[in-house]
Give the backbone structure.
Amino acid sequence: MVSEASKDHLLFLTTKSPWTSSSAASCSDMAMTAAIFDQSVKLLFCSDGVFQLLKNQDGTSCGMQTLAKQLSAMDLYGIKQVYADKSALQERGLQERDLLQAVTVLSCDQIQSLIAESKAVLVF
Amino acid sequence: MTLHTLNKHRSDLVHLCISALGPEDSLLLLEDGVYAALDGTHSPLDPATLPAGIKLYALTEDLAARGISEKISDVFTRITYRDFVSLSLACSKVVNWN
Amino acid sequence: MSTFSIIVQGAPYSSQAASSAFNFSKVALESGHQIYRLFFYQDGVHNASALIVPPQDEIHLPKNWQSLISNFKLDAVVCIASALKRGIVDAGEADRYELPASNLLPGFTIGGLGLWLDATLNSDRVLNFAP
Protein backbone atom coordinates (compact mmCIF):
# COMPACT_ATOMS: atom_id res chain seq x y z
CA MET A 1 0.00 0.00 0.00
CA VAL A 2 1.24 3.47 -0.82
CA SER A 3 0.88 5.97 2.00
CA GLU A 4 -0.77 9.34 1.30
CA ALA A 5 2.39 11.17 2.32
CA SER A 6 4.44 9.64 -0.47
CA LYS A 7 1.96 10.79 -3.14
CA ASP A 8 3.85 13.92 -3.97
CA HIS A 9 4.12 13.94 -7.74
CA LEU A 10 1.89 14.87 -10.65
CA LEU A 11 1.86 12.33 -13.47
CA PHE A 12 1.36 13.44 -17.06
CA LEU A 13 0.56 10.58 -19.38
CA THR A 14 0.62 11.30 -23.11
CA THR A 15 -0.69 8.84 -25.70
CA LYS A 16 -0.78 10.65 -29.04
CA SER A 17 1.61 11.49 -31.86
CA PRO A 18 2.78 15.12 -31.74
CA TRP A 19 1.50 15.69 -35.30
CA THR A 20 -2.08 14.45 -34.88
CA SER A 21 -3.47 17.24 -32.66
CA SER A 22 -2.44 19.80 -30.08
CA SER A 23 -2.85 17.17 -27.33
CA ALA A 24 0.85 16.30 -27.05
CA ALA A 25 1.90 19.96 -26.91
CA SER A 26 -0.76 20.75 -24.32
CA CYS A 27 0.57 17.93 -22.14
CA SER A 28 4.09 19.28 -22.39
CA ASP A 29 2.91 22.85 -21.60
CA MET A 30 1.09 21.73 -18.45
CA ALA A 31 3.96 19.51 -17.31
CA MET A 32 6.49 22.31 -17.77
CA THR A 33 4.24 24.79 -15.96
CA ALA A 34 3.95 22.42 -13.00
CA ALA A 35 7.74 21.94 -12.98
CA ILE A 36 8.37 25.69 -13.13
CA PHE A 37 6.16 26.06 -10.05
CA ASP A 38 8.35 23.54 -8.20
CA GLN A 39 6.04 20.55 -8.40
CA SER A 40 7.48 17.07 -8.68
CA VAL A 41 6.56 16.07 -12.22
CA LYS A 42 6.66 12.67 -13.91
CA LEU A 43 6.07 12.32 -17.62
CA LEU A 44 5.01 9.00 -19.14
CA PHE A 45 4.89 8.31 -22.89
CA CYS A 46 2.46 5.56 -23.95
CA SER A 47 0.97 4.28 -27.22
CA ASP A 48 1.68 6.69 -30.16
CA GLY A 49 2.90 9.17 -27.55
CA VAL A 50 6.35 7.56 -27.79
CA PHE A 51 6.69 9.10 -31.28
CA GLN A 52 7.04 12.46 -29.52
CA LEU A 53 10.48 11.33 -28.33
CA LEU A 54 11.98 10.47 -31.74
CA LYS A 55 15.17 12.18 -32.81
CA ASN A 56 15.48 14.19 -36.04
CA GLN A 57 11.94 15.62 -36.05
CA ASP A 58 11.43 18.93 -37.86
CA GLY A 59 8.03 20.34 -38.81
CA THR A 60 9.39 23.21 -40.89
CA SER A 61 8.61 21.48 -44.19
CA CYS A 62 4.92 21.18 -43.27
CA GLY A 63 4.57 24.51 -41.49
CA MET A 64 4.21 22.93 -38.05
CA GLN A 65 5.88 23.60 -34.71
CA THR A 66 8.33 20.89 -33.62
CA LEU A 67 7.35 19.64 -30.17
CA ALA A 68 10.54 17.56 -29.91
CA LYS A 69 12.56 20.81 -29.62
CA GLN A 70 10.54 21.75 -26.54
CA LEU A 71 10.79 18.22 -25.12
CA SER A 72 14.56 18.22 -25.44
CA ALA A 73 14.57 21.08 -22.90
CA MET A 74 12.54 19.13 -20.32
CA ASP A 75 15.58 18.66 -18.15
CA LEU A 76 16.21 22.43 -18.00
CA TYR A 77 12.64 22.93 -16.79
CA GLY A 78 13.22 20.46 -13.99
CA ILE A 79 11.45 17.45 -15.47
CA LYS A 80 13.92 14.67 -14.75
CA GLN A 81 11.61 11.70 -14.37
CA VAL A 82 10.72 10.63 -17.88
CA TYR A 83 9.20 7.22 -18.61
CA ALA A 84 8.08 5.24 -21.63
CA ASP A 85 5.78 2.23 -21.92
CA LYS A 86 7.96 -0.75 -22.84
CA SER A 87 5.29 -2.38 -25.02
CA ALA A 88 4.64 0.88 -26.89
CA LEU A 89 8.30 1.07 -27.90
CA GLN A 90 8.45 -2.62 -28.83
CA GLU A 91 5.25 -2.55 -30.91
CA ARG A 92 6.65 0.38 -32.91
CA GLY A 93 10.10 -1.13 -33.40
CA LEU A 94 11.78 1.67 -31.46
CA GLN A 95 15.03 1.36 -29.54
CA GLU A 96 16.23 3.68 -26.83
CA ARG A 97 18.94 4.97 -29.18
CA ASP A 98 16.16 6.35 -31.45
CA LEU A 99 15.00 8.67 -28.67
CA LEU A 100 16.10 12.23 -28.04
CA GLN A 101 16.70 11.62 -24.38
CA ALA A 102 17.15 8.87 -21.84
CA VAL A 103 13.91 7.40 -20.54
CA THR A 104 13.09 4.81 -17.92
CA VAL A 105 11.25 1.96 -19.60
CA LEU A 106 8.26 0.63 -17.64
CA SER A 107 6.21 -2.57 -17.74
CA CYS A 108 2.42 -2.64 -17.27
CA ASP A 109 2.76 -3.41 -13.57
CA GLN A 110 5.17 -0.55 -13.08
CA ILE A 111 2.77 1.82 -14.87
CA GLN A 112 -0.03 0.71 -12.52
CA SER A 113 2.19 1.47 -9.53
CA LEU A 114 3.19 4.86 -10.95
CA ILE A 115 -0.50 5.79 -11.32
CA ALA A 116 -1.31 4.53 -7.82
CA GLU A 117 1.56 6.54 -6.31
CA SER A 118 0.65 9.84 -8.01
CA LYS A 119 -1.14 12.73 -6.35
CA ALA A 120 -2.97 13.39 -9.62
CA VAL A 121 -2.84 11.93 -13.12
CA LEU A 122 -3.65 13.77 -16.33
CA VAL A 123 -4.02 11.81 -19.57
CA PHE A 124 -3.52 13.54 -22.92
CA MET B 1 -8.25 2.87 -5.43
CA THR B 2 -8.58 4.89 -8.62
CA LEU B 3 -11.60 5.73 -10.78
CA HIS B 4 -10.68 5.42 -14.45
CA THR B 5 -13.02 6.86 -17.06
CA LEU B 6 -12.84 5.97 -20.74
CA ASN B 7 -14.62 8.12 -23.34
CA LYS B 8 -13.53 6.47 -26.60
CA HIS B 9 -14.17 3.17 -28.32
CA ARG B 10 -10.73 2.93 -29.87
CA SER B 11 -8.97 -0.36 -29.42
CA ASP B 12 -5.51 1.02 -28.59
CA LEU B 13 -6.95 3.28 -25.91
CA VAL B 14 -9.23 0.56 -24.49
CA HIS B 15 -6.24 -1.75 -24.17
CA LEU B 16 -4.01 0.94 -22.66
CA CYS B 17 -6.69 1.80 -20.11
CA ILE B 18 -7.19 -1.87 -19.22
CA SER B 19 -3.46 -2.41 -18.77
CA ALA B 20 -3.39 0.49 -16.31
CA LEU B 21 -6.17 -0.89 -14.08
CA GLY B 22 -4.99 -1.96 -10.66
CA PRO B 23 -6.73 -4.29 -8.19
CA GLU B 24 -9.91 -2.78 -6.69
CA ASP B 25 -9.95 0.11 -9.20
CA SER B 26 -13.19 1.22 -10.84
CA LEU B 27 -13.76 1.82 -14.55
CA LEU B 28 -16.58 4.04 -15.82
CA LEU B 29 -17.37 4.07 -19.54
CA LEU B 30 -18.79 7.32 -20.86
CA GLU B 31 -19.43 9.00 -24.22
CA ASP B 32 -18.34 6.56 -26.99
CA GLY B 33 -16.59 4.47 -24.35
CA VAL B 34 -19.99 2.90 -23.54
CA TYR B 35 -19.84 0.95 -26.83
CA ALA B 36 -17.20 -1.22 -25.13
CA ALA B 37 -19.96 -2.48 -22.80
CA LEU B 38 -22.04 -4.06 -25.61
CA ASP B 39 -23.00 -7.63 -24.88
CA GLY B 40 -22.06 -10.39 -27.32
CA THR B 41 -18.98 -8.60 -28.63
CA HIS B 42 -15.49 -9.85 -27.90
CA SER B 43 -14.94 -7.00 -25.49
CA PRO B 44 -11.60 -7.05 -23.70
CA LEU B 45 -13.52 -5.83 -20.63
CA ASP B 46 -13.98 -9.35 -19.29
CA PRO B 47 -13.97 -9.64 -15.48
CA ALA B 48 -12.34 -13.07 -15.86
CA THR B 49 -9.19 -11.49 -17.29
CA LEU B 50 -9.18 -8.19 -15.34
CA PRO B 51 -7.38 -7.71 -12.00
CA ALA B 52 -9.33 -8.84 -8.93
CA GLY B 53 -12.05 -6.61 -7.55
CA ILE B 54 -12.41 -4.30 -10.56
CA LYS B 55 -15.80 -2.62 -10.66
CA LEU B 56 -17.27 -1.81 -14.07
CA TYR B 57 -19.76 1.00 -14.72
CA ALA B 58 -21.38 2.64 -17.76
CA LEU B 59 -23.02 6.07 -17.81
CA THR B 60 -26.81 5.81 -18.14
CA GLU B 61 -27.22 9.06 -20.08
CA ASP B 62 -24.64 8.08 -22.71
CA LEU B 63 -26.07 4.55 -23.09
CA ALA B 64 -29.55 6.01 -23.64
CA ALA B 65 -28.27 8.53 -26.20
CA ARG B 66 -26.76 5.67 -28.21
CA GLY B 67 -29.82 3.42 -27.94
CA ILE B 68 -27.92 0.62 -26.21
CA SER B 69 -29.26 0.80 -22.63
CA GLU B 70 -30.68 -2.74 -22.88
CA LYS B 71 -27.85 -4.21 -24.92
CA ILE B 72 -24.96 -4.09 -22.50
CA SER B 73 -23.28 -6.94 -20.71
CA ASP B 74 -24.56 -7.54 -17.18
CA VAL B 75 -21.07 -7.17 -15.73
CA PHE B 76 -21.60 -3.40 -16.03
CA THR B 77 -23.58 -1.35 -13.51
CA ARG B 78 -25.49 1.55 -15.06
CA ILE B 79 -24.92 4.81 -13.17
CA THR B 80 -26.10 8.41 -13.64
CA TYR B 81 -24.09 11.65 -13.52
CA ARG B 82 -25.12 11.98 -9.87
CA ASP B 83 -23.52 8.57 -9.12
CA PHE B 84 -20.50 9.58 -11.24
CA VAL B 85 -19.95 12.57 -8.94
CA SER B 86 -20.22 10.36 -5.83
CA LEU B 87 -17.98 7.68 -7.31
CA SER B 88 -15.27 10.21 -8.15
CA LEU B 89 -15.21 11.17 -4.47
CA ALA B 90 -15.37 7.60 -3.18
CA CYS B 91 -12.22 6.78 -5.17
CA SER B 92 -8.92 8.36 -4.20
CA LYS B 93 -8.33 9.94 -7.62
CA VAL B 94 -9.76 10.12 -11.11
CA VAL B 95 -7.89 9.28 -14.32
CA ASN B 96 -9.76 10.36 -17.47
CA TRP B 97 -8.57 8.29 -20.45
CA ASN B 98 -9.26 10.09 -23.73
CA MET C 1 -19.12 18.71 0.69
CA SER C 2 -16.09 18.41 -1.57
CA THR C 3 -14.28 20.62 -4.03
CA PHE C 4 -13.83 19.86 -7.72
CA SER C 5 -11.95 21.55 -10.51
CA ILE C 6 -12.88 20.84 -14.10
CA ILE C 7 -10.65 21.05 -17.17
CA VAL C 8 -12.62 21.53 -20.40
CA GLN C 9 -10.63 20.76 -23.55
CA GLY C 10 -13.35 20.32 -26.18
CA ALA C 11 -15.06 23.01 -28.26
CA PRO C 12 -18.86 23.08 -28.09
CA TYR C 13 -20.60 21.26 -30.99
CA SER C 14 -17.35 19.52 -32.09
CA SER C 15 -17.29 16.63 -29.62
CA GLN C 16 -19.16 15.56 -26.50
CA ALA C 17 -16.40 16.67 -24.13
CA ALA C 18 -17.79 20.15 -23.37
CA SER C 19 -21.34 18.82 -22.83
CA SER C 20 -20.08 16.08 -20.51
CA ALA C 21 -18.03 18.63 -18.55
CA PHE C 22 -21.10 20.86 -18.25
CA ASN C 23 -23.36 17.99 -17.10
CA PHE C 24 -20.84 16.83 -14.50
CA SER C 25 -20.31 20.37 -13.19
CA LYS C 26 -24.04 21.08 -12.95
CA VAL C 27 -24.81 17.84 -11.13
CA ALA C 28 -21.85 18.27 -8.76
CA LEU C 29 -23.03 21.77 -7.82
CA GLU C 30 -26.67 20.68 -7.46
CA SER C 31 -25.48 17.84 -5.20
CA GLY C 32 -24.04 20.46 -2.84
CA HIS C 33 -20.38 20.25 -3.85
CA GLN C 34 -18.19 23.18 -4.80
CA ILE C 35 -16.24 23.90 -7.95
CA TYR C 36 -12.99 25.66 -7.17
CA ARG C 37 -12.35 26.52 -10.80
CA LEU C 38 -13.45 25.74 -14.34
CA PHE C 39 -10.38 25.80 -16.59
CA PHE C 40 -10.96 26.05 -20.34
CA TYR C 41 -7.94 24.78 -22.22
CA GLN C 42 -7.04 24.13 -25.88
CA ASP C 43 -10.20 24.02 -28.07
CA GLY C 44 -12.24 24.30 -24.86
CA VAL C 45 -11.70 28.08 -25.00
CA HIS C 46 -14.43 28.27 -27.69
CA ASN C 47 -16.98 27.66 -24.91
CA ALA C 48 -16.27 31.25 -23.84
CA SER C 49 -17.00 32.87 -27.21
CA ALA C 50 -19.71 35.53 -27.18
CA LEU C 51 -20.17 35.10 -30.93
CA ILE C 52 -21.58 31.57 -31.05
CA VAL C 53 -25.08 31.28 -32.56
CA PRO C 54 -26.35 27.68 -32.54
CA PRO C 55 -29.59 26.77 -34.39
CA GLN C 56 -32.66 27.48 -32.23
CA ASP C 57 -33.39 23.81 -31.57
CA GLU C 58 -29.89 23.17 -30.19
CA ILE C 59 -28.59 23.71 -26.68
CA HIS C 60 -26.69 27.00 -26.29
CA LEU C 61 -23.70 25.65 -24.40
CA PRO C 62 -21.79 28.94 -23.93
CA LYS C 63 -24.92 30.56 -22.47
CA ASN C 64 -25.54 27.53 -20.25
CA TRP C 65 -21.99 27.84 -18.90
CA GLN C 66 -22.58 31.55 -18.37
CA SER C 67 -25.75 30.85 -16.33
CA LEU C 68 -24.01 28.20 -14.25
CA ILE C 69 -21.06 30.51 -13.60
CA SER C 70 -23.38 33.32 -12.57
CA ASN C 71 -25.79 31.20 -10.46
CA PHE C 72 -23.01 29.51 -8.49
CA LYS C 73 -20.49 32.40 -8.63
CA LEU C 74 -17.86 30.17 -10.24
CA ASP C 75 -14.32 31.07 -11.17
CA ALA C 76 -14.16 30.31 -14.91
CA VAL C 77 -10.73 30.79 -16.43
CA VAL C 78 -9.87 30.61 -20.13
CA CYS C 79 -6.23 29.70 -20.80
CA ILE C 80 -4.62 32.79 -22.32
CA ALA C 81 -2.19 30.96 -24.61
CA SER C 82 -4.94 28.69 -25.98
CA ALA C 83 -7.38 31.60 -26.31
CA LEU C 84 -5.13 34.05 -28.17
CA LYS C 85 -4.25 31.38 -30.75
CA ARG C 86 -7.93 30.68 -31.37
CA GLY C 87 -9.23 34.24 -31.48
CA ILE C 88 -10.87 34.44 -28.06
CA VAL C 89 -9.92 37.77 -26.48
CA ASP C 90 -11.15 40.08 -23.74
CA ALA C 91 -11.13 43.86 -24.07
CA GLY C 92 -7.65 44.13 -22.52
CA GLU C 93 -6.04 41.69 -24.96
CA ALA C 94 -7.91 43.26 -27.90
CA ASP C 95 -6.43 46.58 -26.88
CA ARG C 96 -2.93 45.19 -26.35
CA TYR C 97 -2.79 43.49 -29.75
CA GLU C 98 -4.78 46.24 -31.53
CA LEU C 99 -7.52 43.83 -32.60
CA PRO C 100 -10.78 45.14 -34.11
CA ALA C 101 -13.01 43.54 -31.43
CA SER C 102 -13.14 41.42 -28.29
CA ASN C 103 -15.43 38.41 -27.81
CA LEU C 104 -14.98 36.89 -24.34
CA LEU C 105 -18.37 36.07 -22.85
CA PRO C 106 -18.97 37.98 -19.57
CA GLY C 107 -18.46 35.70 -16.56
CA PHE C 108 -15.28 34.15 -17.99
CA THR C 109 -11.82 35.57 -17.32
CA ILE C 110 -8.53 35.04 -19.15
CA GLY C 111 -5.55 33.68 -17.22
CA GLY C 112 -2.42 31.57 -17.32
CA LEU C 113 -1.64 27.91 -16.75
CA GLY C 114 -0.55 28.74 -13.21
CA LEU C 115 -4.27 28.99 -12.38
CA TRP C 116 -4.79 25.43 -13.59
CA LEU C 117 -1.98 24.25 -11.31
CA ASP C 118 -3.40 26.22 -8.38
CA ALA C 119 -6.77 24.52 -9.04
CA THR C 120 -5.14 21.09 -9.15
CA LEU C 121 -3.41 21.66 -5.81
CA ASN C 122 -6.48 23.12 -4.08
CA SER C 123 -9.27 20.75 -5.17
CA ASP C 124 -10.24 17.34 -3.82
CA ARG C 125 -10.64 16.00 -7.37
CA VAL C 126 -9.76 17.26 -10.84
CA LEU C 127 -11.69 15.96 -13.83
CA ASN C 128 -10.36 16.37 -17.34
CA PHE C 129 -12.92 16.37 -20.16
CA ALA C 130 -11.05 16.07 -23.47
CA PRO C 131 -12.29 15.26 -26.99
Remarks:
- The longest strand of chain B covers residues 2-6.
